């Protein structure tokens, strides 16, 4: 519990004791008391509607209850300097803000762990994200899913959850067969032969390059292989090359996975038949017009779904159900999928399938990452300047950098469409939120360098530093914002909303820039300078830790 939480607890305890003293509740009773930070400073540092909630119990008008509570309140013990009654019975509390200085001590002593909480209590959570078909480059939708997914995992981990990151490799369907046939066609073309691309083939430059590389390294030797063996070679070659590229791009994007789960393993490990058998056993499978169906409508889906087509082949749904059942079998307390906007309709059928299997569908959460539109020069960008094809994640990293790409993708809720302004993302101005935030950290580091040049010793710890010079309104505002980080992390984890951390770090930068303009840090007063350097050290930890959660660097210089 940090200083902000400790102070809220003191006020809560004091209000509860006041309610007992005023005769509204009995000793030992624990009425719910909600404290909020008012949007307007004129309304105090904390506010509560406790008096309004007590009307039924106290059988008095809320203003009369509020007056009695304040008369019985031990303000000194709670750190309350004064209190006001507003409107129908709100109580606005104006605090002695000196308690905020303790935040400096906590942030500096905790360092890289400042902001970490035990909110998750070690609950086991799996997050599956990106999971792009290994048939080409990662596009903008995958990039957004990667940025949000990784940030969410970081937030959950920092909030005390036991997190596992998983990438599901779609390597068993028709798309991989088409990849193999596409590479074979390009290989033959590279040898100077006539070869038509498959109807649903892949026409990317990478496929052309694969064909050319094989022609140069293998000559025409692959043509003499039996059909099945040749197909298996092209399939494996294409899969490995495409996966290698995906992994390289994700590594550059600072995204890692604990587990790469292959769809092929579902077949190799025999997971489909037991899944189908369990659905049959539970009475949710029926046959119609030669196909095998799953009855999902009783579980909220808009129509029943085909599992096995009348030609005996599986639909995409059946192996996906087997995969998700496998997830449940691994003992996660919660599973989170981040899917693209085109998968919106897939959510209710997967949840229905889990319920049909007797599993708890509430354990599975699906976040839909909405579409991304790129803008440059005021116009929508659809094609890469480099290739003339659709813009990829690699293009965006090349054009605007990893920091800006990750920040922009993570700064909006996944369920909202995102307009990505490429000009703004690379601009060296305060209008660019990435520059604005990173410049704040660089300014802090610049102050530290100036202190070193002047021979001013940096405090290694805030313990023992006289922090009483931190008494201005600007300092208190900055301290309060630093102190909000642990609660922001917990709330971002609870609501699965990493964009809250982006908003927090921007507000922290805004508060810092205001303070920097208002007050000198390196002054003639040694005690004041040491206190402010300790404040900046705490601030640096808050910046670095928050930015690390969203995968953005905190540069020392700009």
Give the SSE layout:
Layout: H1 3-21, E1 35-36, E2 46-48, H2 50-53, H3 55-58, H4 62-72, H5 75-78, E3 80-86, E4 90-95, H6 102-110, E5 124-128, H7 140-158, E6 162-169, H8 174-190, H9 205-218, H10 227-252, E7 259-262, H11 263-268, H12 272-281, E8 285-288, E9 291-294, E10 305-308, H13 317-329, E11 334-340, H14 346-356, E12 364-369, E13 372-376, E14 379-381, H15 393-400, H16 402-410, E15 418-421, H17 422-426, H18 433-453, H19 473-483, H20 485-494, H21 499-518, H22 526-549
Helix pairs in contact: 1-4, 6-22, 7-16, 7-20, 8-9, 8-10, 12-13, 15-16, 18-21, 18-22, 19-21, 20-21, 21-22
In short:
It comes from Paenibacillus antri. With 558 residues, the protein is of the alpha/beta class.
What does this molecule look like?
The strands form 4 sheets. The chain has a 5-stranded parallel beta sheet with strand order 7-6-5-11-12. Strands 1-2-4-3 form a 4-stranded antiparallel beta sheet. A 3-stranded antiparallel beta sheet has the order 8-9-10. It starts with a helix and ends in a 9-residue tail after the last helix. The protein contains 22 helices and 15 strands. By secondary structure, the chain is of the alpha/beta class. A hairpin with a 3-residue loop joins strand 3 and strand 4.
Silhouette: globular
When the domains are counted, the total is 4
Quick one: biggest sheet? 5 strands, parallel
Strand order of the largest sheet: 7-6-5-11-12
Secondary structural class: alpha/beta
Domain Arginyl tRNA synthetase N-terminal: 9-95
GO biological process, one term: arginyl-tRNA aminoacylation
Keywords: Aminoacyl-tRNA synthetase, ATP-binding, Cytoplasm, Ligase, Nucleotide-binding, Protein biosynthesis
GO molecular function: arginine-tRNA ligase activity; ATP binding
